[in-house]
Structures are given as C-alpha cells and as structure tokens.
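Students often ask why inverse folding is considered easier than folding. One informal answer: many sequences map to the same fold, so there is more than one right answer. In these notes we will look at a single instance of the problem. The structure comes first.
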C-alpha cells in the first residue's frame, strides 16, 4: 500500500520538526509539506528533514490540502495531519489499519473519543466539533464524534468526491460527500495534545467563527440538497 502524507503549514517552525521526526517512515512513501508563506523557517526545516516542500501562496487550510493532493505520486492512501504537533504521527497505523483491512474508505481520528491532554482543545472547539458531529449523526446517519484534523482516505475515494473547498470547510466537505456517495467512514480514537506555537484557526476569532459558519452551513446545505434530489426521484 503506497501512503502519502500531507501536512499543511503556516509558521509551524516550533512544531514541524517533531511532527516529521515522529512519522513512521517504514509505512510512508512520501511526506508533502504544503507551506503558505511562512516567515519563520518552516519550509527550510521541513526540507532539511527530508519532506517534499510545496509552496502554496493561496491561503486556506483546504487549499493546502488540495494542492498537496495534486502533488502526490500515485498513492493508494493519503493521510492528512496538522503541522502543530497536536496529533501524534506515531498513531498513523491506527488510521491506516481499517483501510488496509478493507473495512473503511475514509478514517477520521477522533480527539473526543481518544485520550486528550486537558486544554488541548479550547472549549469552543470542543463544543463546535461536538455540535457538528451530532448534526452529522442525526441528519446523515453517520456515527462520528469529532471532525479531527488527523485523517486518511483511499486516493480513488478522494478523486471521486471532487473536493473544492479552500477553507477549513474542506474537512466537512470530505465527510459529507463521502457519506452521501456511500463510502465507508470509520472513526478511530486518537490522542490530542496542546499545539506548539500559535493557532491559525481555532485560536483566533475570525478562524473560529469562519470555521463554525462554514461547517454548519455545509452540513445544512448538503442535507437539503440531498433531500430535494431524493424527493424529486420518481418511485
Ligand atoms: N498551507 C497552509 N496551512 C495552513 C493555513 N492555515 C492553517 N494552516 C495549517 O493548518 C493546520 C491547522 O491549523 P491550526 O492553526 O492548527 O488550526 P486549529 O488546530 O484549529 O487551531 C496547521 O498545521 C497550520 O499551520 C494556510 O492558510 N495555509
Ligand atoms: Mg491545530
């Protein structure tokens, strides 16, 4: 199984070295760090540690994931994780196992189901993720507890769902399009730790409200779009 790892970064010089050092090299074929205009030496550290660094001047977490995907070299599975050392790359086998065993097409690392260092997730992120996961469970019938940033998917599944979001909504777009298309999404508990360095999303006012709005509006709009097409279908 060929595995590509994609890590979006913006000013993660304090953390990226730890993240790259902890990736189980024997399981991974390539590591792509997609960097957006870091001014603290993140891309230089990543390159020195053997990662392929791709520069993406267009901002946005989703844009970085899309650009990273476009640069992968024929993987079977693609893994996404943050560059802030909140996720533990050593837990990568937990995400790969259900896909390797043919039980899942997409796996999501749940921070709420796993052992969390107190304070690793601010209260509004805890609440927001719980709310989004609860709505997805109720409206789409998919039992998940979190929209964690540590996730994996089969490469053909990622191609099939044709993701477009360039913002933090990328993660929810993958889950919603995945479940609507009938792909098997399996959640696995992962650990979560306080990030090194400063948050770009949940630690900022704009990032928090932007992400919350995006995630909740997408959950609603895909639901109503799907209901409309189901109801319009002749019996
Ligand atoms: N390439 C790129 N990476 C980004 C951008 N915004 C955030 N990131 C990275 O995406 C990951 C998630 O962001 P983070 O600040 O940890 O968000 P939080 O976990 O919600 O607080 C981190 O590795 C960031 O460095 C961006 O505009 N471009
Ligand atoms: Mg983070």
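Output (designed amino acids):
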């Amino acid at each position: 199984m060929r595995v590509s790892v994609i890590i979006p970064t913006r000013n993660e010089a304090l953390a990226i070295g730890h993240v790259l050092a902890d990736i189980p090299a024997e399981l991974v074929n390539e590591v792509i760090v997609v960097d957006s205009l870091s001014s603290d030496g993140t891309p230089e550290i990543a390159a020195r540690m053997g990662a392929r660094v791709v520069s993406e001047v267009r901002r946005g977490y989703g844009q970085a994931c899309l650009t990273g995907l476009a640069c992968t070299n024929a993987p079977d599975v693609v893994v996404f994780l943050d560059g802030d050392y909140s996720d533990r790359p050593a837990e990568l086998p937990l995400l790969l196992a259900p896909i390797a065993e043919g039980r899942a097409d997409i796996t999501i690392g749940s921070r709420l189901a796993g052992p969390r260092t107190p304070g690793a997730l601010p209260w509004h992120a805890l609440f927001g993720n719980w709310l989004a996961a609860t709505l997805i469970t109720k409206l789409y019938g998919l039992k998940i507890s979190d929209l964690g940033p540590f996730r994996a998917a089969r490469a053909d599944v990622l191609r099939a769902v044709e993701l477009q979001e360039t913002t933090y909504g990328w993660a929810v777009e993958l889950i919603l399009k995945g479940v609507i298309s009938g792909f098997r999404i399996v959640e696995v508990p992962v650990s979560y730790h306080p990030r090194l360095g400063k948050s770009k999303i949940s630690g900022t006012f704009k990032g928090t409200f932007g992400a919350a709005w995006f995630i909740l509006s997408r959950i609603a709009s895909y639901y109503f779009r799907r209901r409309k097409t189901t109801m319009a279908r002749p019996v």
